[in-house]
Amino acid sequence: MTLRKLFVALAAALLLVLAHRAYGWPGVAAVSGGLLMWLLLHVTRLLTVLQRAAQRPLGHIDSAVMLNARLRVGASLLHVLAQTRSLGVLESAAGEQPERYRWSDNSGSALTAEFRSGRLLRWTLLRPNDGTPAAPPPDPSQPPVQPPVQP
Fold this sequence. Notes:
Elements: H1 3-23, H2 25-54, H3 64-70, H4 77-84, E1 89-90, E2 99-104, E3 110-116, E4 119-126, E5 133-134
Helix pairs in contact: 1-2, 2-4
């Protein structure tokens, strides 16, 4: 269990305890209803993404180059599936970490993404014209590198 999942479970339990202390059982019922609604929203999003992905060919996307530009390190697998609207072709062995998925487009470009515990680690774009991997886009949180000024 990751730290994020543990934090969510502890926050939900804390909300229930605080609701009981402040409002009694009606408070617990109100917080439980809110937590149930939050859970149902997440399940609905998951099912919507998977339904859209199931209607497209396995591993096919409209543009691998555009996907390369939109990916960010740390994105969840569900978020990447929502962007691609397609299930990727699994290239690693089942249950092996990191998991590698591959998507390709009609132009022959292909993108291979590596996930560890459902989070995007790195990706590689292969273009058909030169066969060399393209570098991922720069991290927007890092300041751009300025070239030295010549006098």
